[in-house]
Amino acid sequence: MTWTGDPIWLADVLRAEGLTVIEHAGWLGRGHGDFRDLRGVMCHHTAGGGPNDWRIVQNGRPGLPGPLAQLVLERDGTYRVIAAGVAWHAGAGSHPGWPTDNANWHVIGIEGVNDGVGQAWPAVQMDAYRRGCAAILRRIGRPASDCVGHKEWSSEGKIDPNFGMASFRAEVARLIATGPPAPMENEIDAEAAVARAWIGTRTTPGELVTADGIGRYARFANGSVYWHPYVRNGDATAVPAHLMETYARYGHESGFLGYPTLRHTVVPGVGDIQAFEGGTLYRRYGQDGFPVRGVIGKRWAAEGYETGPLGWPISDEYDNGTGGLAQDFQNGRLQWDPSGVVKEINRRSDDR
Ligand SMILES: [Zn+2]
């Protein structure tokens, strides 16, 4: 299993499934830390049943700080996207292929609004529940068997959700197989046309299928163009050759970086920058490029990115020898340890 990072694509993937989504302010930064690899979806009911149930899911309750799930599903079928980071929802339990008593770092929690003691589940809410689970599982490449009820997982006597999971999963399996929207042949061509000033001639025929079987790409003399139906709302994105060398080092779209999510930025005379699903690549001309991501990336961003006091990254993240991670920048180092604290040390005046 490799690190896949937070599901920053949640809102886009749900919308691509035709679902109604409310993105709560700050959801991309909300959570108890970064996800490791994503292995499935856990279904819950809120045991409240009213329009304010989401407040507890987002803010927590005495003794248990929020977020308590990534998603809340309202009774009218609307999804509230609460958090992209880890949430406290699973508790102790087990499921084949998931780490025992440790699902919160690997599983997306959905809280369906229902009182759990006899309130009906509206058809529109159940339809959205199944389609949302299918969309997430298809996105992370996991089968319907990784759609698990809290009551199935829990060794603590949880009883939610109060509907039958077997028939629910059968329908989720059918929805996963129905597949994503068909690729539009012209998206890569359209992006290549936008990039015609620099991308050069096409060197691969037509559109090639990416390793996930869903995305497409094409190579050009001076870069490549990637497309995935759930990324950038289905627009293709060009990556220049200078950044492609670094992207290749991290396994292209099947590595933790995933697909490009923005067109690249040129810092004239200095280097190139481009955002991907799992991090952002920075490469100065004449130097190796490196990704910045996760908790360290958030701290670096807060310091002003490459224009802040730390400057450009000059290493990848590495094991700091005490159970945490560190990353070197031109003017210093950021460290992360499991307490979640990021410290800046060794600020140097020499420019490396
Ligand atoms: Zn639950």
TrEMBL record:
Any one GO molecular-function label of the UniProt entry: N-acetylmuramoyl-L-alanine amidase activity
E.C. designation(s): 3.5.1.28
Gene3D superfamilies (alphabetical): Peptidoglycan recognition protein-like
Residue span(s) of domain N-acetylmuramoyl-L-alanine amidase: 26-162
Keywords on record: Cell wall biogenesis/degradation, Hydrolase
Keyword Transferase among UniProt keywords: no
InterPro entries attached to this UniProt entry: Amidase/PGRP_sf (IPR036505), Amidase_domain (IPR002502), LGFP (IPR013207), NAMLAA_amidase_2 (IPR051206)
PANTHER family on file: N-ACETYLMURAMOYL-L-ALANINE AMIDASE AMID
Name used for this protein in its record: N-acetylmuramoyl-L-alanine amidase
Organism classification: Bacteria, Bacillati, Actinomycetota, Actinomycetes, Mycobacteriales
